[in-house]
Design a protein that fits this description.
By secondary structure, this protein is α+β, with helices and mostly antiparallel strands. It contains six helices and 17 strands.
């Protein structure tokens, strides 16, 4: 088990588009104040608050929302090594261990020294055209090269460590982390990877007469996705897509930063969380 983690300067953020997120965050701030812990509170999009996080004013960020809020918090917090504690007000919450009704119980555990910090690999994606880097970003879940608004499948070639792997005709290709293996990659038929792994998972989306199996690459691999169609886009962690041109390259490697999450109990929490969500989903629509 990792070293116990007890924060001294937490901050609470709420997802502004989620009903009750701010009210819940305010209740948390009041609860912590009663415990003698001052925790500023604000929107996940508040620029002043974000600057303070980047400056190192806080040693933990509590985010109230769903998995999308955790993804946004991960992008903010990973470069400055601030651990994230998510409280789920959303639906699935694969990234979150604490449900809305449980946070008081877990806050007690937190300040009793029963929490630890888990590190999760992120991906770094570079968009390259004619040898020039046009942009780059990090992903906690996945990097997707897929078809745009045109319904035709796209063609692309994939190489690993500068060696050709295969070519695809498909709706797209997902390069995912172990964290992302329970997100879009899972919906596309990929395997579930334990969160501590630092492998890159490649999953084709609706492949047509192409390799239809996911591929798990070894740690440290470098992936080049070479676009062979006009109608393709790049999207990182579900962000608005960037248009790609034929012969553009999307290079995917492990990022030099990791996302840190505050966890409770043994590492088996991941499988308990996973099976609970799977069972919940299988009951969807039943009385």
């Amino acid at each position: 088990m990792s070293t116990p983690f007890i924060p001294k300067h937490p901050v609470i953020t709420a997802y502004p588009k989620m009903p009750n997120a701010f009210a819940e965050a305010e209740t948390m701030a009041a609860y912590l104040k009663d415990k003698g812990v001052e925790a500023p509170m604000g929107s996940l999009y508040d620029e002043d608050l974000r600057k303070r996080v980047k400056k190192g004013d806080f040693d933990m960020l509590i985010t109230v929302g769903g998995d999308g809020s955790v993804l946004r918090a991960g992008h903010l917090c990973a470069p400055c090594k601030v651990p994230i504690l998510g409280v789920n007000l959303g639906r699935l919450g694969f990234l979150i261990q604490i449900e809305k009704k449980e946070w008081r119980e877990y806050f007690e555990k937190l300040f009793n020294g029963e929490a630890w910090v888990e590190n999760r690999m992120m991906l770094h994606a570079e968009h390259i055209r004619a040898g020039e880097k046009l942009g780059s970003s990090n992903a906690l879940n996945e990097v997707v090269v897929g078809r745009g608004q045109n319904l035709r499948p796209v063609r692309f070639s994939v190489s690993v460590d500068e060696r050709h792997l295969t070519s695809y005709v498909a709706d797209g290709i997902i390069a995912a982390t172990a964290t992302g293996s329970t997100a879009y990659a899972l919906a596309a038929g990929g395997p579930i990877l334990p969160p501590e792994l630092r492998n890159i998972l490649l999953v084709p989306i609706a492949p047509h007469l192409s390799v239809d199996r996911a591929v798990v690459l070894s740690e440290g691999s470098s992936v080049n996705i070479i676009v062979k169609s006009e109608n393709s886009v790049l999207s990182v962690d579900g962000q608005p897509p960037t248009s790609l041109m034929e012969d553009d390259i999307v290079k995917v490697t492990a990022a030099d930063v990791t996302a840190q999450f505050v966890r409770f109990g043994d590492p088996g929490y991941f499988y308990r969380n996973l099976t609970a969500h799977m069972n919940q989903n299988s009951l969807a629509g039943q009385a």
